[in-house]
Design a protein that fits this description.
With about 650 residues, the chain is of the alpha/beta class. The chain has 22 helices and 24 strands. It binds 5'-O-[(L-methionyl)-sulphamoyl]adenosine.
């Protein structure tokens, strides 16, 4: 059992939280819950970035003190995180005393060691971005980052000697492959470091801005917000340096950030830490952006997606799952309600939720609602047990690699395997044939497999996993609450035979794509989109197709059926023997003309009697009105060849 320290960016307190903020925070929450599940002691920090010109101006506009403004604004984040079941260890605000103390101590340390100096500076300054640019950075004389007007400012300021550390940082990044992830972001930073690094202006004169942390060695200045904000990653875990908590948690394991703030985290921050004599965080992981129809979300475009609306409509667990599942962590992803509905219906309702109903029903019908003991083990059973035993280890190693997408896909492959296992072993047939030992084994394995996946999904679908597990007794639920004491919760065989199974309501009901009109224009789906969703939902899963066994059949004999003008009795060779089938093609084909043809036969259709003649299989034909055309293969194939 180790320690694991993870952070989200601290959000600008002025912003109204949107799905981008929610995503960063859910990711960190999910990662931290997985680490807890696998036995780590976790520190998970998030919070708000509360200083700077924008906050000062917003407060002024409202006619309130900046601190009061922050106190009111911060509630939006705290409440959203509560709603999203974000289980952070600490919520840090940069207006806290402790944080100020750490920022000032750090500044003093860097100043005393000569890495901060005072100088006159003339530069182009972007007010909204609160940063200086050089003449050559500008794009059409405007801010290269936000495209807005810049102003020329000449002032005396304090500068941090970043230039001096450029070569060291380049080597460090090259020597530590996990330091910046994913690879694309690392390469961007290495590209950026090919150019000389400019020293960073880390102060602002109070005459221009006084809502910030005072520079400890010059009362006329406050600290640049990014210097202030980045330091939160240290102040959140305790007071500076010789503090026990600091020793315990630093260096941080993962700083999750959005791709737009990679430079501040992968260049400024490591240099600040190096200058202060601290170790560097193990990984800075830059995730992509959620886009709306390939566009950035912005208030002015009016396409900002608010998490609260989605949570209210689809439920918190589904929302968490949908976000985690649909963004390949490093890349951008497109958000739409269509995506939300499709993911819920296919993964949560169809694969996971259905499995629960299936097994609970069967245990109830065949074993009076009690988990049977496992008795006979066939090769098919063995396969499902082996896969179940190795699943937690693979999920664990994906998580250690911050590869949530692969972890999820491994879990869902297993869910589909269990569904297939049930289809193939067909408990209903085992019951009919009185193969009770086999039936017990299949149902035990299916229940245990389901329990395992619920535990492994619990970091994402917290409540729903608990509800699902409660079907298998209260005791199993207790595991979730005390994960640290029950590291073995995810090992195979924990489910006790004899446990009573409770019937519970469908945990993830299918969502009707025909969204209810909520009255708000932005929630209405265009008709076209609705059609698309409907079509999407009507599509069948590949697993359905795989269930149909189709083979090449060579017609050995054909004869009319008495008193029928449409039916022919046909004998086909389908590789493993002869089959007799009855087909309604007599109006189009004469018996003798089809003998020798290689056609396509569905072999696993239930046998039937048609006009008193046994039919065991079905041939395929194209039809247009009265006209029929037998489907045959393009090249001669051996009878029994599979159609795939
Ligand atoms: N306050 C700074 C961070 C300081 S950390 C020491 C900041 N705040 S922010 O509120 O503007 O952004 C916070 C995070 O939200 C960033 O990681 C940013 O990338 C992320 N997102 C903002 N919009 C986003 C999307 N549309 N999609 C995903 N994440 C995005 O920057």
């Amino acid at each position: 059992m180790g320690t694991f320290y993870i952070t989200t960016p601290i959000y600008y307190v002025n912003d109204e939280p949107h799905i981008g903020h929610a995503y960063s925070t859910i990711l960190a929450d999910v990662m931290s819950r997985y680490h807890k599940l696998f036995g780590d002691e976790v520190f998970f920090s998030t919070g708000t970035d509360e200083h700077g010109l924008k906050v000062q101006e917003a407060a002024k506009k409202r006619g309130v003190e900046p601190k009061l403004h922050c106190d009111e604004m911060v509630v939006r984040f705290v409440e959203l995180w509560k709603k999203l079941r974000i289980n952070y260890t600490r919520f840090i605000r940069t207006t806290e005393k402790k944080h100020k103390f750490v920022v000032q101590s750090l500044l003093t340390y860097l100043y005393e060691r000569g890495d901060i100096y005072f100088d006159t500076y003339e530069g182009k300054y972007c007010i909204p971005e609160e940063r200086f640019w050089t003449e050559k950075d500008l794009v059409d004389a405007k801010c290269p980052s936000c495209g807005r007007e810049v102003i020329t400012i000449e002032e005396k300021n304090y500068f941090f000697k970043m230039s001096k550390y450029r070569d060291w940082l380049r080597d460090y990044i090259k020597d530590h492959p996990d330091f910046i992830k994913p690879e694309t972001r690392k390469n961007e930073i290495l590209g950026f470091l090919k150019n000389p690094l400019i020293d960073l202006c880390i102060s602002r004169p109070k005459s221009r801005l006084d809502w910030g942390i005072e520079i400890p060695f010059d009362k006329k200045y406050v600290t640049y917000v990014w210097f202030d904000a980045l330091t939160n990653y240290i102040s959140t875990i305790g007071v500076y340096r010789d503090n026990n908590s600091f020793q315990k948690w630093w260096p941080c394991d993962i700083h999750f950030v959005g791709k737009d703030i990679t430079t501040t985290h992968a260049v400024y921050w490591p240099i600040m830490l190096k200058s202060a004599g601290f170790d560097l965080p193990k990984t800075i992981f830059a995730h992509g952006w959620w886009l709306i129809q390939d566009e950035k979300m912005s208030k002015s475009v009016g396409n900002v997606v608010k998490p609260v609306d989605l949570i209210d409509r689809y439920g918190v667990e589904s929302f968490r799952y949908v976000l985690v599942k649909n963004m390949i962590i490093g890349s951008d992803a497109s958000f739409s309600e269509e995506m939300v509905i499709n993911t819920i219906n296919s993964d949560l309702a169809n694969d996971y939720g259905n499995l629960l109903s299936r097994i609970v029903n069967m245990v109830e019908i065949y074993f009076e609602g009690k988990i049977p003991e496992t008795a006979a083990v066939s090769k098919t059973d063995e396969k499902i047990i082996t896969a179940g035993k190795s699943l937690p280890e693979s999920v664990k190693s994906y998580i250690e690699n911050t590869d949530l997408n692969s972890a999820l896909s491994a879990i869902f492959v297993y869910i589909r395997k269990i569904n297939k296992y049930i289809d193939e072993t067909a408990p209903w047939t085992l019951y009919k044939k009185n193969k009770i030992k086999e039936l017990k084994t299949v149902l035990y394995n299916a229940c245990e497999g389901f329990r395992l996946i619920s535990v492994l999904l619990s970091p994402i679908i917290i409540n729903k996993a608990e509800t699902a597990l409660s079907a298998f007794s209260e005791e199993v639920m207790k595991y979730i609450d005390n994960v640290n004491e029950n590291e073995e919760i995810y090992s195979w065989g924990k489910l006790k035979p004899g446990t009573s199974v409770k019937k519970i309501d469908s945990i993830f009901p299918r969502i009707d794509s025909d969204l209810k009109d909520t009255g708000k224009p932005e929630r209405k789906m265009k008709d076209k989109e609705k059609d698309k969703v409907k079509k999407e939902l009507e599509k069948i899963d590949i697993e359905y197709i795989k269930k149909i066994d189709m083979r090449v059949g060579r017609i050995l004999d054909a004869s009319p059926i008495k008193n029928s003008e449409t039916l022919l009795k046909i004998i086909v060779d389908i590789g493993d023997g002869k089959r007799q089938l009855v087909a309604g093609i007599a109006g189009q084909y004469k018996a003798e003309e089809i003998v020798g043809k290689e056609i396509v036969v569905v072999t696993n259709i239930k046998p039937a009697k048609i006009r008193g003649t046994k039919s065991n299989g079905m041939l395929l034909a194209a039809s247009a009105g009265e006209t029929l055309s037998l489907i045959s293969v393009d090249r001669s194939m051996d009878p029994g060849s599979e159609i795939s």
